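Quick question, first post here. What does this chain look like in 3D?
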Amino acid sequence: MPVINRIAGYADEMKGWRRHLHAHPELGFDCHETARYVVERLREFGVDEIHEGLATTGVVAIVNGQGKGPTIGLRADMDALPIQEATGRKYASKHPGKMHACGHDGHTTMLLGAAKYLAETRNFAGRVALIFQPAEELGGGGGVMVEEGVLDTFDIASVYAVHNAPGFPAGTFMTGPGPVLASDDTFHIRITGVGGHAANPQEAKDPIMAAVGIAQALQSIVSRNHYAREDLVLSITQIHAGSADNVIPETAYLNGTVRSFLPEVREMVERRMKEVVKGQALAFDVKAKLDYVRGYPPTVNDPEKAEFAAGVARGVVPDAQVIFEENREMGAEDFAFMLQARPGAYMVIGQGDSDGLHQPGYDFNDEITPLGASYFARLVETAQPAR
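> Answer (accepted):
Ran it through. Tokens below.
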């Protein structure tokens, strides 16, 4: 079964929804207008239930099928990024410093397209829960929804999500069993020394030298403390210190991120970072404080659900356009929290050549919207066929 004809028939309508969302981006949990727009569309479609205010601005809509059966969850993220848009599109962001640079406007539109079709046809058993989630980029809205009991409240048995992928042929579907995205931890290191005149360093306790020593020593965790075949990335992304060329400052600050897949690797990195920071502080005769913050866990597909999802995708596009293999990426995604709580799968769909995610020139490819909406709809109809 290729793209569903009914969904293809309102491709232009979906394009209008997507471009409206693109022009009105919102950040984090502050997706009030986005949620309001989503709810307006859902009411037009005639879904059975709409629940608002979940994780502040999240929405869950319920569509009942034919007869008894489980509830399958479909999730789309709604939030944008704090980036100044540079696409020059007529529908470019109307909010300075905010833009949909990750395609969440497209993900939301795909799920709205599936919602309209499923509410019209109801050719499935049980129920579908349509989850519109805020704060994927900033705040972990998926985790908040899980903590609030959304999966339990609506008795969701399995859950699925889609994300677009620039640089891959448009309409290519990609997933695999097990881990597909890494955990995302952050660290903050604050160093306090004694400031002084740059001409008299012997009278100071230089936090910059300590920062350099810490930055270099931390890389030994990756190169010397862990098994090379267990993926690990430790990146220092910020170093701040000083304000004049003839002053040794009193303080310095380092910040960065750690990406991995295994709990024991996360434990090892945090332990070694504490040891390295303590040792380097002693070596340079300064004080140093490490704050290590656990972020999103790894995104881990249920093997059977991932294989099932790939099979559904093969009903939407030719077999050659579906890639099912173990292929881990070091990015992170808060859909991980939902996959910790329920079996399911995270699917990636190629959107063709474009600027990359999180870049000011990025724009979602409207041509793949009917494919994503059809995939969502077929997931429900295939997993829970009407009797």
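The chain has a mean pLDDT of 97.
The chain has eleven helices and 16 strands.
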